[in-house]
Each structure stands twice: as structure tokens, then as C-alpha cells.
């Protein structure tokens, strides 16, 4: 994965140090002229004349198998101009992407060329540039996407994952925006009333706490979690000697950040890492597996998906389609097979085939007499017998739009099947953002990702501090 680390180095350095655009960073390590064994014969390799200020590194050559557009004699000038633009631009992925996508309306030669150009400007080795472009191209064909609007966010997402840029400011504010959009109704009801309460109340007296508790209940925190949160805030106020209502916002933010602070987990050391997806029907288990598998693939991992939801043939087919789309191996048996056997065989195969991550999809409801929890227990037993430590992660998927139900589901699955982490889906469609607080507080489980829509890139790492700020109508940290 030399490409990833090389590029990360460039990005990291340019960010923290003096904010140098990519081509500048590259020019320091410019390869010998004519580098790139994969260069197609007769292709218009351009940088015969050096650009001003030695700005155009190998970035100006044309990648193998990505034909140049018509009018190729202009290539070097165009590349030169592009390089200059990149150098002058703000060093953010979205800005760079904006520049290379200028004048590109749809998938085609110009896009492949520009993409390869950007990657090479970031010092990516030729074969990995080619892989990235080929992979993306194949994916567009499978998805039948043609126009830039259809795939722009996916492209940025892939670049961010490949370059390990997700925590960068740019990415964070994108996530923040999405969460804020998703939570806009909650915020109207909640943040505004909080504002009023904080502004109008002088002292932190009983009347204040009662009103705050009511607000929490309205934001769908639920009765008990609301009481608990108020108690925690009272305690924090005592500790920090806060007595005025106008300081309560800071108290609440700090408390929420603490509630969302998840303990760090030791990741699995013995591949394949086995991830078991559980949850009631319709919450988004299968889609979330596809999204996680996609992320893992983008990070260069070998992925397998197993269909241990064997009740409907349609469910198996749905999963198979996803597996094909994201480029994961797939293991299934005909509908009606024993789910635990499918899981068993899948681990066996995953070990033999050197898989890095195995996702096991399960049914959300059983149409037989078998109890869902018994079935899950059986799957877990089989997995751990076959592969030590498996399932390494048992992820409970919760649909945020179901509000309080999420709490009882968590309790049930935790007791009966074991849960290591939570993923909250459909946050884009809910006014019930408060449920995340309740679940995290009552069950002390980390929320690792949130689903913000149906597209592949709509699964985002959960950032508790940002989420708390979005919920309270505050700008994202760093804005
Ligand atoms: N808006 C939105 N829809 C989502 C999200 N996650 C999943 N969905 C949709 O929710 C529906 C159900 O998703 P599935 O992945 O099939 O749910 P499941 O838990 O596997 O369902 P069963 O297999 O029937 O138990 C699908 O239409 C998904 O596209 C999300 O984050 N936002
Ligand atoms: Mg499913």
C-alpha cells in the first residue's frame, strides 16, 4: 500500500507544515525523465519542456490504457495550466476535485485522464493510479452512472478513503452538514427551546432542571434517560461550580461529548476479522454491510460477505448483488438452509482464501418457530468454534426513526446475543436524533457509524462531539 502512505505523507506534511499544494511536494522527488514503465507507446508524453518553476512533475504524462482525448497536442499546455491551478488552490481534496472536474460532464476519457493526473500529482505510483482509475471505471459501469452529479460524492469519498483523509477538516464539515440537515427538525424543536431556556432563566434552580428534562423528553430521549441526563448535568454543575443558566449550554455539550466518548477497542489480530450484523427486520443490516464492505474494499482489504439470512431467496439475491457491486467474495446456500452452517462454511472459506474481513448478514425476523435470539446464539457459537475470537465485532443496527424502540431493541440484543457496537441508520430521515444520546448513555456502547442516506458513501464514522454540536445547533468544532 505504498501509494496510500506516500500520498498520506504529502497531504499530512502539506497540511500541518506550510500548506504546500501537491505538485510542489512532488517536485522535490521528481523521478528521472521517462519514468513509468507502463507508458503506452506513442502516447503523447508531454513534459518535454519543463513547466515554469519546475511545476509540472510526472503528473503531466498520460496513464497507460487511458486514452487521451481529442486534440492531444494541447495536453502539455493543459496539464501545465492544471498543475498551476492545483498549486495555487487551497489544499483541500474537494477543491482539487473541483478543479480537475472542470469541463468534465460525464464518465469518459477526459475524466480518466484528469483523475490519473491528480493521483500522479500526488506521487502515486503508475500501477496504483491505474488500479484506482480502473476500479472506479468498472464501478461506474456496474452502477450505470454516467454524469458527474451522480458520482461526484462517491469519487471524493473514494479518494478520501484511499488517501486516508477522512478526518480532515473538509471531510468533517461535510459530515457535520449532513448530520445537521438530518437533524434539522429535531434542532428546530430542541435547539431553539434550549436557547430560550438558557437565555431566559437566571439561576440553575429546580424550575430550570424540570424544564430541561421536559425538553429532553420531547427530543425523544425517553423518560428515564432524560432523568439520568439531568442528574448527570446537576452533578457536573456542582463539580464545576456552575450556577447560571447561560453557562448550561457548555455543561450540556461537555456532558454529551463524554457520553459519546467510546472506549478504544483493540482490533482483531487474527484475520479474517469476523463481523456479525444483527438487528430487527428492516433496520438496514444488509445495506449497512454493503456500505461497510465498500469502505473495507476502498481501504484495500479482501472482503467476503456471507448470507446467513437464509429465509428469503430475495434477501440472498439482494446481498449477492451488493457483493458484486462492491467487489467482495460472496458465500451463500439456497434459501431455507441452516444459517449457522452458512456462517460456519463462510469462515472456513474466508480462512482458506486469505480474506481480511468477513461480514455475516443475519435475518431480522424468523418465520419459523426458531427464536431469533437462539438462532443468533447458535451462529455465534459456531463462529467462535471455527475461528478464535469470532465474531470479533457484533454490530447492532438500529433505525433512528423508530425512536424509543431502539432502546428496548438494544437491551434485548445485548442480553441475548451480545453487542459490541452500534450503527444508527436513517438519521437522514428523522427528527428523533435524541435517541442516540439515550442509547449511548444507557448502554455504554460505542456508536461507530451513522447512516445518512441510501448511497454507499452515506455511511459515515460517528463523531460524538460533532453530533452533540449539531444537535444543539452549534457550529462544528473548528468553524
Ligand atoms: N434513508 C435511509 N435509508 C436507509 C439507510 N440505511 C438503510 N436504508 C434503507 O432501509 C431499507 C431496509 O434496508 P435493509 O438493509 O434491507 O434492512 P435489513 O435490516 O437488512 O432488513 P431485513 O433483511 O428485512 O431484516 C432499504 O430500503 C435501505 O435502502 C439510511 O441510512 N438512510
Ligand atoms: Mg437484510
From TrEMBL:
Report the enzyme's class at the first EC level: hydrolase
Q: What is the topology of this protein in the membrane according to its UniProt annotation? A: Peripheral membrane protein
**Residue ranges with Low complexity bias:** 30-44
Keyword field: Cell membrane, Cytoplasm, GTP-binding, Hydrolase, Membrane, Nucleotide-binding, Receptor
- MF GO annotations: GTP binding; GTPase activity; signal recognition particle binding
Where is this protein found? Cell membrane; Cytoplasm
Q: Which reaction does it catalyse?
A: GTP + H2O = GDP + phosphate + H(+)
Q: Where is this region: Disordered?
A: 14-79
- The answer, when asked if Hydrolase is one of the entry's keywords, is yes
Q: Tell me which domain of life the UniProt entry assigns to the organism this sequence originates from.
A: Bacteria
Which is an annotated Pfam family here? SRP54_N
Q: Which InterPro entries match?
A: AAA+_ATPase, P-loop_NTPase, Signal_recog_particl_SRP54_hlx, SR_rcpt_FtsY, SRP/SRP_N, SRP54_GTPase_dom, SRP54_N_sf
Q: Where does GTP bind?
A: 279-286, 361-365, 425-428
What processes does the entry annotate via GO biological process terms?
SRP-dependent cotranslational protein targeting to membrane
Does Nuclease count among this protein's keywords? no
Q: Which segments constitute the SRP54-type proteins GTP-binding domain?
A: 446-459
Q: What does this protein do?
A: Involved in targeting and insertion of nascent membrane proteins into the cytoplasmic membrane. Acts as a receptor for the complex formed by the signal recognition particle (SRP) and the ribosome-nascent chain (RNC). Interaction with SRP-RNC leads to the transfer of the RNC complex to the Sec translocase for insertion into the membrane, the hydrolysis of GTP by both Ffh and FtsY, and the dissociation of the SRP-FtsY complex into the individual components.
Q: Which PANTHER family match?
A: SIGNAL RECOGNITION PARTICLE RECEPTOR SUBUNIT ALPHA (PTHR43134:SF1)
The entry sums up its family as follows: Belongs to the GTP-binding SRP family. FtsY subfamily.
What name does UniProt use for this protein? Signal recognition particle receptor FtsY
Could you read off the lineage of the organism from its UniProt record? Answer: Bacteria, Pseudomonadati, Thermodesulfobacteriota, Desulfovibrionia, Desulfovibrionales
